[in-house]
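New to this. Please check this fold:
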Amino acid sequence: MLSQRFIESMVGLFILLAIISLSILAFKVSGLTTLFPEKNYTVTAAFDEIAGLKPRAPVKIGGVQIGEVSSITLDRMTFKAIVKLAILSQYNDIPDDSSAGIFTAGLLGDNYIAITPMYSKNFLHEGSQIEMTRSAMVLEKLIGQLIYKLGNSSNTSNDNGESNAKK
């Protein structure tokens, strides 16, 4: 029969392994850090409006995640948002004339950057800049413009001097 001391040691070892496994799982799921960081290269893009884009937002081509946003800063000369994209090094064949746009996952989901590849034979590399960008569409601005236009169209008059709102 196994001694009491051996059984307690095995239980202690099992609990220690469980705590280490749960810690690794928590770090992996949260994405705070990776134990085995993947190799990537950094590309920049300038946007007029980023509308809630955050660091660590996905960068996708055709819906497939190829990297993430590493940082967002403000260019004090042009007042544009400079977004640095960390693209996995296995995707090193993205044409350098590609465009980048900020989109929303669903109607009210998180923002992500979608890269649309073009046809150049030269590829993006460390330090490249994506020249063609499409800024995010801000839902609040669109609703405000719609309300403004609806408000102005109801106050206009027709040829008989009657208001369109009274019709």
Remarks:
- The CA atoms of residues 37 and 68 lie 13 Å apart.
- The mean pLDDT is 87.
